[in-house]
Amino acid sequence: MAILFLRRLSGRKRTTEANQLLGLVLSFVAGATNAGGFLAVRRYTSHMTGVVSSMADDLAMGNVTLALSGLGAIISFLSGAASSAILINWARRQHLHSEYALSLLLEAALLLCFGLLGANLSLRMGLFVPVTVMLLCYIMGLQNAIITKISKSEIRTTHVTGLVTDLGIELGKLVYWNMEHDHAAQPKVMANRDRLKLLIALLSMFFVGGVVGALGFKHIGFASTVPLSALLLALAIIPVMDDVVVRWRRFRKHA
């Protein structure tokens, strides 16, 4: 039963329910990684809006070094998103069951590296920022691209600005007072209650993940990302193993 559930959650064949469930799990992971990562690297790495704004401020103030550090973060996030697109499209061309699971597996591996090597990586520089910052930005870009591709841009998990905006729109429609004389001229303004519930759930999971991630890093440090890595591995492993079994059978058949 658990195998069927995991295969449905991260496998190639998608349903709206599976997309939403995966989005909720990834929102939790993103919140935990973002909040715990802030305590580790003193930067939020899940959204680039603040980074771009800071770069503009730094350049205006003549702080070129700080502006370059922001550029390094953006390049890392961009590279993560690009890597996810490459993996997904390659797996799609190969007709793999792990079309989306490969990116989840890569994210799990990178979070494990961050958890086990984070203290050492924080001392090393790359692209004008510590390697820890680059790694977290890369992971956030990777994850955001995964769920974006899966849901056809309907779900975001690594930043909440879009979630809060969409939530505000639906709440506005929910409380809108439809005048009786307007009904014949045009349809009623109605909130999408299912989407409203989903947005609230995604926002809540990001917040809960943030609390868990912050507490985890406070008490056990970089290793707090290891359970997150294990969670992502559990999500990805079944479709990956399905592909391994298929390839093995083909090899045995032609051996």
TrEMBL record:
It comes from the Bacteria. Keywords: Membrane, Transmembrane, Transmembrane helix. The chain crosses the membrane at residues 21-41, 61-88, 100-121, 127-147, 198-220, 226-246. InterPro entries: DUF1275. PANTHER family: SLR0142 PROTEIN (PTHR37314), UPF0700 TRANSMEMBRANE PROTEIN YOAK (PTHR37314:SF4). This is DUF1275 domain-containing protein. The lineage of its organism: Bacteria, Pseudomonadati, Pseudomonadota, Betaproteobacteria, Burkholderiales.
